[in-house]
Amino acid sequence: MSILVNKDTKVIVQGFTGKEGSFHAEQCIAYGTNVVGGVTPNKGGTEHLGKPVFNTVKEAVEATGATVSMVFVPPAFVADAVMEAADAGIELAVIITEGAPVRDMQAAKAFALKHGMMTIGPNCPGIITAEECKIGIMPGMIFKKGNVGLISKSGTLTYEASNQVVKQGFGITTAVGIGGDPIIGLSYKQLLPMFEADPETKVIVMIGEIGGDLEIQAAKYIKEHITKPVVAFIAGQTAPKGKRMGHAGAIVSGGAGTAAEKMEALRAAGVKVVVSPSEIGKAVAEVMAK
Amino acid sequence: MNIHEYQAKQIFQKYGVPTPRGIVANTADQAVRNAAELGGKIWVVKAQIHAGGRGLGGGVKLARSLDEVAEHATKILGMNLVTHQTGPEGKLVQKVYIEEGADIQAEYYLGVVLDRAKELPIIMASTEGGMEIEKVAEEHPDKIIKVAVDPAIGFQGYHGRELVFGLGITDPNEQKKFIKFAAALYRVYIENDAEMIEINPLIKTGSGDFLALDGKMGFDDSALGRHPDIEDMRDISEEDPDEREAGRYGLSYVSLDGEIGCMVNGAGLAMGTMDTINYMGGTPANFLDVGGKANAETVAKGFEIILKNPNVKAIFVNIFGGIVRCDRIANGILEATKLVHVHVPVIVRLDGTNAAEAAEILKNANIPNVIAATDLADGAAKAVAAAKGA
Prior knowledge:
heterodimer; A: 290 residues; alpha/beta; 7-stranded mixed beta sheet; 9 helices; 14 strands; 22% strand; globular; B: 390 residues; alpha+beta; D-amino Acid Aminotransferase, Chain A, domain 1; Dna Ligase, domain 1; Rossmann fold; 13 helices; 25% strand
């Protein structure tokens, strides 16, 4: 079992024939993801990586029955692509692109929700169900199958965490990179109940960072609804206030959104909070042993 | 990206957000000519820097004659203005804004920001104009009125009514003027992809008019591509030169005050690396994310920028290769040692895609000063030890 995606999930790629889209779509196919086609306007009717190319998402969905789209279009076109996917009946759009304007994402997400489409990202590594389905840019070989569910704002910390979990002799059910932009799609609060309901997932690891209050919302949710053990790390304990740390959303503004307040809220909710990402694997092993 | 007050006011005026009249000057002579052109008997000479608290720092002065305009402008231009937002090093004033004096009857605060929890722009207003909004939020949260506006419907009449009733503005004529002001400011926010707008204070004059006495604007960097007019307002002298240079190479850099330089891929891991160094008893000298498209050139540049900081006693390269392949980083390290004199120990931890090839490249190169680490904890510990001279 897993959450959201598995080996049967039919995936299309928006921005399929572009440089980034091609490279990563190929890697996904090699991993075993069921990529059923892609969309690039004016290239409909051709083939790419052995899969059909369509002019519109609507055509692609009608022809292939795809339910998930991996979005690789350039930043200025992300909102358009996401809204097109929502309108065409896609159920989940995984938005990899970095640098989409906040105003565009606000509009695109609101429209997606109206159409019942979930989104992941933007500016994220994507989602992977270990040894079944990779929709994103993460190095697949790190994610061995196991019983740990992973939710992370940071791409490389997702890899770091998974690597440590595997070194401890465990593995991953599904890992979701939710992205570090000010407005993102699925977040802890929506993903935690999915892992809670997934019989294979025994432990949940959540990785957050400074800025915003999603981790605080997560702490409240965990306290009330999550029975499985949760291990957490919040990046940016040493980050100065008022400075943007790489991710558009990673900023302590007006003294709010600090790592300390998030760690405190999570601890109060019974979460095992580690102070360095190098402790994640050990912490998972400890809660597994209980 | 942030802009100056005088630039924010230019944008305000374009959208019908009322401001006092003013003209920017680079010299004291020009300041006097501007004041004469504006006319009147009272002017305000205002230092233009990207920081708040200018008045308390001596950067805003009232002038009652053209001689006083000259006197204040001479003093303010070229001064190193220190405020609570500039840090102790202060900021050099290169421009002054000469503005007509205003008759202040009441002071308000009005701002627009993104509410990340609601995922909507939010208009914030308060009767506590002139005070820092964070302070008001802390001490009198009831005195801040927050009105979220859904961009799908735009600024409606009820948004305006919530604002004026919340602020206790009862005169119907004043209500109309304030609502028009707020509606225009919302348009400024949306149509320019602003990240935040702050007017503190917004004043009511004796004749019941509302004016933006101050103006602060920041923009969504990801949207600047579609606003060339705003990009033109960029004042590079206000930006940290190292951060700016890093940005040109696709690197994200923030300077800190510790001793261990960090080069990491990914913002989360970069922060996590700083946190780990701190946890191990060391101090990070910087945040540096080499991003998803690092190559030999960008990595060498990263070394160059890190090494500009004289406090750096060791460098910790921590790469978990997903998109960034470790062999590329390894080549970057080799390239950097050719281009830049690396006089401090470099602790290298490369893991993930092509890690084995990377280890081979580094081993064959046999560079003195390069210490291999097996994982994050090992690397951080070695970096802390190296910085302490162990």
